[in-house]
Amino acid sequence: MNQTIETILSHRSIRKFTEQAIPQEVLATLIDCARAASSSSNIQCVSVIRITDAKKRELLSEYAGGQGYVASAAEFLVFCADFNRHQQIKPDSRLGFMEQTLIGAVDSALMAQNCLLAAESLGLGGVYIGGLRNNPDKVCELLNLPENVFPMFGMCLGYPDQDPALKPRLPADLILHTDNYQPLDAEKLAEYDATMREYYDIRTGGKLDQSWSDQIKAILSKEARPFIQGSLNKQGFAKK
Protein backbone atom coordinates (compact mmCIF):
# COMPACT_ATOMS: atom_id res chain seq x y z
CA MET A 1 0.00 0.00 0.00
CA ASN A 2 1.03 3.57 -0.62
CA GLN A 3 -0.75 6.92 -0.63
CA THR A 4 -1.77 6.63 -4.29
CA ILE A 5 -3.36 3.22 -3.82
CA GLU A 6 -5.05 4.32 -0.61
CA THR A 7 -6.58 7.29 -2.43
CA ILE A 8 -7.87 5.08 -5.24
CA LEU A 9 -9.35 2.49 -2.88
CA SER A 10 -10.99 5.18 -0.75
CA HIS A 11 -13.07 6.62 -3.59
CA ARG A 12 -16.63 7.63 -2.76
CA SER A 13 -18.98 9.79 -4.79
CA ILE A 14 -19.49 13.08 -2.93
CA ARG A 15 -22.74 14.95 -3.53
CA LYS A 16 -22.74 17.39 -0.63
CA PHE A 17 -20.11 20.09 -0.38
CA THR A 18 -19.09 22.88 1.97
CA GLU A 19 -19.14 26.48 0.76
CA GLN A 20 -15.33 26.58 0.66
CA ALA A 21 -14.00 27.60 -2.73
CA ILE A 22 -11.28 25.65 -4.48
CA PRO A 23 -8.16 27.84 -4.80
CA GLN A 24 -7.30 28.69 -8.39
CA GLU A 25 -3.85 27.14 -8.08
CA VAL A 26 -5.44 23.88 -6.95
CA LEU A 27 -7.87 23.91 -9.87
CA ALA A 28 -4.97 24.59 -12.23
CA THR A 29 -3.14 21.57 -10.80
CA LEU A 30 -6.21 19.38 -11.33
CA ILE A 31 -6.42 20.45 -14.97
CA ASP A 32 -2.71 19.74 -15.38
CA CYS A 33 -3.31 16.25 -13.98
CA ALA A 34 -6.15 15.75 -16.44
CA ARG A 35 -3.92 16.89 -19.30
CA ALA A 36 -1.31 14.31 -18.28
CA ALA A 37 -3.65 11.39 -18.99
CA SER A 38 -2.96 8.93 -21.77
CA SER A 39 -4.39 9.83 -25.17
CA SER A 40 -5.01 7.54 -28.13
CA SER A 41 -2.33 8.30 -30.76
CA ASN A 42 -1.74 11.56 -28.85
CA ILE A 43 -4.80 12.92 -30.63
CA GLN A 44 -5.85 14.82 -27.47
CA CYS A 45 -9.50 15.15 -28.48
CA VAL A 46 -10.95 16.47 -25.20
CA SER A 47 -11.99 19.92 -24.06
CA VAL A 48 -13.07 20.80 -20.51
CA ILE A 49 -15.58 23.57 -19.93
CA ARG A 50 -15.57 25.16 -16.49
CA ILE A 51 -19.02 26.47 -15.62
CA THR A 52 -18.95 29.56 -13.39
CA ASP A 53 -22.21 31.21 -14.50
CA ALA A 54 -24.84 30.56 -11.81
CA LYS A 55 -27.73 30.53 -14.29
CA LYS A 56 -26.01 27.99 -16.49
CA ARG A 57 -25.30 25.87 -13.41
CA GLU A 58 -28.99 25.91 -12.53
CA LEU A 59 -29.98 24.93 -16.05
CA LEU A 60 -27.41 22.14 -16.21
CA SER A 61 -28.69 20.88 -12.87
CA GLU A 62 -32.18 20.80 -14.37
CA TYR A 63 -31.02 19.14 -17.60
CA ALA A 64 -29.21 16.46 -15.58
CA GLY A 65 -32.44 15.43 -13.88
CA GLY A 66 -32.61 17.82 -10.96
CA GLN A 67 -29.23 17.04 -9.44
CA GLY A 68 -28.86 20.05 -7.14
CA TYR A 69 -25.17 19.53 -6.43
CA VAL A 70 -24.43 20.57 -10.02
CA ALA A 71 -25.41 24.07 -8.90
CA SER A 72 -23.98 23.95 -5.37
CA ALA A 73 -20.54 22.37 -5.89
CA ALA A 74 -17.53 24.66 -5.72
CA GLU A 75 -16.64 23.74 -9.30
CA PHE A 76 -18.49 22.09 -12.16
CA LEU A 77 -16.60 20.83 -15.20
CA VAL A 78 -18.01 19.45 -18.45
CA PHE A 79 -15.78 16.99 -20.29
CA CYS A 80 -16.34 17.05 -24.04
CA ALA A 81 -15.09 14.92 -26.89
CA ASP A 82 -13.66 17.54 -29.24
CA PHE A 83 -12.66 17.09 -32.87
CA ASN A 84 -13.53 20.67 -33.78
CA ARG A 85 -10.03 21.71 -32.81
CA HIS A 86 -8.62 19.13 -35.22
CA GLN A 87 -10.88 20.28 -38.03
CA GLN A 88 -9.54 23.80 -37.61
CA ILE A 89 -6.03 22.38 -38.07
CA LYS A 90 -7.09 20.26 -41.06
CA PRO A 91 -10.33 21.61 -42.57
CA ASP A 92 -10.81 18.54 -44.77
CA SER A 93 -10.46 16.13 -41.83
CA ARG A 94 -12.38 12.88 -42.26
CA LEU A 95 -14.60 12.89 -39.19
CA GLY A 96 -17.79 11.25 -37.97
CA PHE A 97 -16.45 7.72 -37.62
CA MET A 98 -17.60 5.50 -34.77
CA GLU A 99 -13.98 4.83 -33.81
CA GLN A 100 -13.45 8.55 -33.25
CA THR A 101 -16.55 8.61 -31.05
CA LEU A 102 -15.09 5.80 -28.96
CA ILE A 103 -11.72 7.55 -28.74
CA GLY A 104 -13.44 10.75 -27.60
CA ALA A 105 -15.35 8.88 -24.89
CA VAL A 106 -12.31 6.95 -23.69
CA ASP A 107 -9.98 9.94 -23.65
CA SER A 108 -12.58 12.03 -21.82
CA ALA A 109 -12.92 9.35 -19.15
CA LEU A 110 -9.16 9.00 -18.74
CA MET A 111 -8.69 12.75 -18.30
CA ALA A 112 -11.60 13.02 -15.90
CA GLN A 113 -10.42 10.14 -13.73
CA ASN A 114 -6.97 11.71 -13.47
CA CYS A 115 -8.63 14.95 -12.42
CA LEU A 116 -10.85 13.31 -9.81
CA LEU A 117 -8.10 11.17 -8.28
CA ALA A 118 -5.85 14.21 -8.02
CA ALA A 119 -8.70 16.11 -6.36
CA GLU A 120 -9.31 13.31 -3.85
CA SER A 121 -5.60 13.19 -3.03
CA LEU A 122 -5.87 16.87 -2.01
CA GLY A 123 -8.84 16.34 0.28
CA LEU A 124 -11.50 17.25 -2.27
CA GLY A 125 -14.40 15.10 -3.37
CA GLY A 126 -16.51 14.84 -6.48
CA VAL A 127 -19.08 12.98 -8.51
CA TYR A 128 -19.56 12.29 -12.20
CA ILE A 129 -22.71 13.67 -13.82
CA GLY A 130 -23.67 11.41 -16.71
CA GLY A 131 -27.13 12.93 -16.44
CA LEU A 132 -26.04 15.68 -18.84
CA ARG A 133 -26.76 13.11 -21.55
CA ASN A 134 -30.44 13.24 -20.54
CA ASN A 135 -30.66 16.46 -22.56
CA PRO A 136 -27.56 16.62 -24.76
CA ASP A 137 -29.07 18.97 -27.34
CA LYS A 138 -29.95 21.52 -24.65
CA VAL A 139 -26.47 21.20 -23.13
CA CYS A 140 -24.87 21.76 -26.54
CA GLU A 141 -26.99 24.84 -27.11
CA LEU A 142 -26.37 26.26 -23.63
CA LEU A 143 -22.60 25.83 -23.90
CA ASN A 144 -22.47 26.90 -27.55
CA LEU A 145 -20.80 23.67 -28.59
CA PRO A 146 -19.94 23.64 -32.30
CA GLU A 147 -20.11 20.63 -34.59
CA ASN A 148 -17.66 17.87 -33.68
CA VAL A 149 -17.87 18.63 -29.95
CA PHE A 150 -20.06 16.51 -27.65
CA PRO A 151 -20.61 16.72 -23.86
CA MET A 152 -19.78 13.29 -22.47
CA PHE A 153 -20.39 14.02 -18.78
CA GLY A 154 -19.94 16.58 -16.06
CA MET A 155 -18.03 16.52 -12.78
CA CYS A 156 -18.82 18.25 -9.49
CA LEU A 157 -15.83 19.11 -7.32
CA GLY A 158 -15.58 20.61 -3.84
CA TYR A 159 -14.69 20.05 -0.22
CA PRO A 160 -16.83 17.20 1.17
CA ASP A 161 -19.60 17.94 3.63
CA GLN A 162 -20.47 14.25 4.04
CA ASP A 163 -18.64 11.01 4.75
CA PRO A 164 -20.50 8.23 2.92
CA ALA A 165 -19.58 4.58 3.28
CA LEU A 166 -17.64 2.87 0.53
CA LYS A 167 -19.97 1.28 -2.00
CA PRO A 168 -19.02 -2.39 -2.46
CA ARG A 169 -17.79 -3.25 -5.95
CA LEU A 170 -18.05 -6.54 -7.80
CA PRO A 171 -15.44 -8.95 -6.44
CA ALA A 172 -12.33 -9.55 -8.51
CA ASP A 173 -13.49 -13.13 -9.11
CA LEU A 174 -16.37 -11.78 -11.21
CA ILE A 175 -14.41 -9.32 -13.34
CA LEU A 176 -10.97 -10.91 -13.79
CA HIS A 177 -10.81 -13.59 -16.47
CA THR A 178 -7.72 -15.58 -17.43
CA ASP A 179 -6.94 -16.45 -21.05
CA ASN A 180 -10.62 -16.54 -22.04
CA TYR A 181 -14.03 -15.35 -20.92
CA GLN A 182 -15.45 -17.30 -17.99
CA PRO A 183 -19.14 -18.05 -17.27
CA LEU A 184 -20.81 -16.01 -14.55
CA ASP A 185 -20.29 -17.56 -11.12
CA ALA A 186 -23.81 -17.59 -9.68
CA GLU A 187 -22.59 -18.27 -6.14
CA LYS A 188 -20.19 -15.31 -6.14
CA LEU A 189 -22.92 -13.12 -7.62
CA ALA A 190 -25.33 -14.16 -4.89
CA GLU A 191 -22.76 -13.24 -2.25
CA TYR A 192 -22.28 -9.82 -3.81
CA ASP A 193 -26.03 -9.30 -4.08
CA ALA A 194 -26.33 -9.98 -0.35
CA THR A 195 -23.54 -7.48 0.36
CA MET A 196 -25.22 -4.80 -1.75
CA ARG A 197 -28.60 -5.45 -0.17
CA GLU A 198 -27.05 -4.89 3.27
CA TYR A 199 -25.25 -1.75 2.05
CA TYR A 200 -28.45 -0.17 0.71
CA ASP A 201 -30.36 -1.13 3.85
CA ILE A 202 -27.82 0.68 6.04
CA ARG A 203 -27.43 3.65 3.68
CA THR A 204 -31.17 4.29 3.45
CA GLY A 205 -32.16 3.31 6.98
CA GLY A 206 -34.14 0.34 5.75
CA LYS A 207 -35.97 2.24 3.01
CA LEU A 208 -34.38 0.34 0.12
CA ASP A 209 -34.30 -3.44 -0.19
CA GLN A 210 -32.39 -4.01 -3.41
CA SER A 211 -29.57 -6.22 -4.62
CA TRP A 212 -27.18 -5.37 -7.43
CA SER A 213 -28.93 -7.86 -9.70
CA ASP A 214 -32.26 -6.17 -8.91
CA GLN A 215 -30.73 -2.83 -9.87
CA ILE A 216 -29.36 -4.16 -13.15
CA LYS A 217 -32.69 -5.77 -14.06
CA ALA A 218 -34.47 -2.46 -13.50
CA ILE A 219 -31.94 -0.45 -15.52
CA LEU A 220 -31.76 -2.87 -18.44
CA SER A 221 -35.49 -3.48 -18.69
CA LYS A 222 -35.97 -0.12 -20.41
CA GLU A 223 -34.41 1.66 -23.35
CA ALA A 224 -31.43 3.78 -22.36
CA ARG A 225 -31.54 7.30 -23.82
CA PRO A 226 -32.92 6.25 -27.22
CA PHE A 227 -32.30 9.78 -28.53
CA ILE A 228 -28.55 9.72 -27.93
CA GLN A 229 -27.58 8.49 -31.39
CA GLY A 230 -29.46 11.34 -33.00
CA SER A 231 -27.78 13.85 -30.71
CA LEU A 232 -24.35 12.39 -31.48
CA ASN A 233 -25.08 12.52 -35.21
CA LYS A 234 -26.26 16.14 -34.91
CA GLN A 235 -22.87 17.07 -33.45
CA GLY A 236 -20.99 15.12 -36.14
CA PHE A 237 -20.27 11.91 -34.19
CA ALA A 238 -21.03 8.22 -34.84
CA LYS A 239 -22.24 8.79 -38.40
CA LYS A 240 -20.31 5.91 -39.93
Q: How would you portray this structure in words?
A:
Residues 8-159 form the Nitroreductase domain. Keywords: Flavoprotein, FMN, NADP, Oxidoreductase. GO terms for molecular function: oxidoreductase activity. Belongs to the flavin oxidoreductase frp family. It is a single chain. The chain is α+β, with helices and mostly antiparallel strands. The chain has 2 domains: 3-163 and 230-235, 3-Layer(aba) Sandwich (NADH Oxidase), CATH 3.40.109; 172-209, no CATH class. It has 11 helices and 4 strands. It has helices at 3-9, 24-35, 54-63, 69-72, 84-89, 98-121, 136-142, 172-175, 186-203, 212-219, 228-234; strands at 46-50, 75-82, 125-129, 149-158. It has a 4-stranded antiparallel beta sheet, sandwiched between helices. Helix 2 crosses helix 6 (98-121). It starts with a helix and ends in a 6-residue tail after the last helix.
Strand content: 5-15%
Radius of gyration: 19 Å
What is the CATH top level name of the largest domain? Alpha Beta
CATH homologous superfamily placement of the largest domain:
NADH Oxidase
* CATH architecture name of the largest domain: 3-Layer(aba) Sandwich
Task: Give the SSE string.
Answer: HHEHHEHHEHEHHHH
Which strand order spans the largest sheet, edge to edge or round the barrel? 1-2-4-3
Return residue spans where pLDDT drops below 50 for at least 5 consecutive residues: none
Return the average pLDDT rounded to an integer. 97
